[in-house]
Write a structure and sequence with these properties.
The chain is of the alpha/beta class. The protein has 17 helices and 11 strands. The strands form 3 sheets. The protein has a 5-stranded parallel beta sheet with strand order 2-1-7-8-9. Strands 4-3-5-6 form a 4-stranded parallel beta sheet, sandwiched between helices. Strands 10-11 form a two-stranded antiparallel ribbon. A hairpin with a 3-residue loop joins β10 and β11. The longest helix has 16 residues. The protein binds iron/sulfur cluster. Iron/sulfur cluster binds next to α15 and α16. The site of iron/sulfur cluster has 14 residues, from α15 and α16.
Length: 361
């Protein structure tokens, strides 16, 4: 383990790892990098071009904005159209096309959408502007759910009545199972998400190794982290072994962050959730427990959005399932660009289409 981040970007080290990967990879092998942060790093550093032709890297469902279903985007938009309600969300979400408009367009029309950096900002708004109701759009995986849970607990303790959360948070294991059991995807190994693993620990991947017989390697986000993970997975494959490896030892422990998990499940119950591209995946989401129902936007407001529709031609869902790539989309780089995104994967700073557009194929 190195001491400084620059050491994980060392060109000679990366070159040696890449040469090692090419040297040991004799069989065709598809690795899914689950996390959008990994996708960005791979494209930015050209890792996919350094590892030879036997290894293919495909992106997975680890970008929180991208996997938010069209219906859930429409729910956020419906909330923003209510009088006296202010919808607060992270930056990327405002530009994701809903069925008819984006949150950014509602903001331009009504002014009641605010971009925030943290759910704590929303609690401050609620305290300072008691005449408005503030709804935070809770997206993300196990990484962000504990801080949202802590904010809900704080609002309850401080009796903040004009704050609620539209809980769209998701959890990884069931979605990974859906990806790996998908016959069209044909994934041989996973680079497991680093940030999620800091909270969950590595234990959540054991079923993938034990039951599905697919190797997983938890990795950090620097080029040497990712190349090392690919090397370790390729080595397992060439030796016909299946294993769970933690190659992000500096941040991830086997049991993760027990306190964060405790807070998360004090506030949330496991629930079925709808994912873009997958439909409803059982036990893959987080629902606010009934003890906190007065802070649950779904319970406070009647949100009926009717039928939701994605932009015709957008294949974001297939990209998130690892069965297509941005180059397979007819709209990519033509009708769909970061300046005029047609789907969530082009909007998000962790989206696969955005990564391909920014750094090239
Ligand atoms: S390029 Fe745009 S339209 Fe095509 S899949 Fe990606 S986000 Fe969707």
């Amino acid at each position: 383990m190195f001491k400084f981040v620059d050491e994980y970007r060392d060109k000679d080290l990366c070159r040696r790892l890449a040469e090692g990967i090419i040297g040991i990879s004799k069989k065709p092998f598809t690795i899914m990098e689950v996390c959008g942060g990994h996708t960005m790093s791979i494209r930015k550093n050209g890792i996919h071009k350094l590892i030879g032709s036997n290894i293919k890297l495909v992106s997975g469902p680890g970008c929180p904005v991208c996997v938010t279903s069209q219906k859930d985007i429409d729910k956020a938009i419906a909330l923003a159209r209510l009088n006296n309600v202010v919808v607060c969300t992270f930056g990327d979400m405002v530009d994701v096309p809903g069925t008819s408009v984006t949150l950014a367009e509602v903001k331009a029309e009504k002014g009641n959408v605010r971009v925030v950096y943290s759910v704590q900002d929303v609690l401050s708004f609620a305290k300072n502007e008691p005449d408005k109701h503030f709804v935070f759009i809770g997206i993300g995986f196990e990484t962000t759910a504990p801080t949202i849970a802590a904010a809900i607990m704080q609002a309850k303790a401080e009796k903040i009545k004009n704050f609620s959360v539209l809980a769209l948070n998701k959890t990884m294991p069931a979605a990974l199972k859906a990806v790996l059991e998908d016959k069209d995807a044909k994934i041989n190994a996973l680079i497991s998400p680093g940030h999620v693993s800091t909270i969950t620990g590595t234990g959540i991947y054991k079923f993938i190794v034990d039951d599905l017989r697919i190797s997983c390697c938890v990795a950090g986000f620097e080029p040497a982290d990712i190349l090392r993970a690919i090397y370790l997975l390729a080595e397992l494959r060439e030796n016909n072994k299946v294993s769970l490896i933690n190659a992000y030892e500096r941040a991830v422990k086997e049991n993760g962050n027990e306190k964060a998990k405790y807070i998360m499940y004090e506030v949330f119950d496991s629930a079925d959730a709808e994912w873009r591209g997958f439909g409803v995946i059982p036990a893959s989401g987080l629902r606010i427990r009934k003890e906190f129902a007065d802070l649950d936007a779904e319970k406070i407001f009647k949100i009926d959005v009717g039928a939701s529709k994605e932009i015709k031609g957008c294949i974001c869902g297939d990209i998130l399932r690892g069965i297509k790539e941005p180059k397979n989309c007819k709209l990519f780089g033509q009708k769909c660009t970061p300046m005029k995104p047609q789907g969530a994967c082009m909007v998000s700073s962790e989206g696969t289409c955005a990564a391909w557009y920014k750094y090239g194929e």
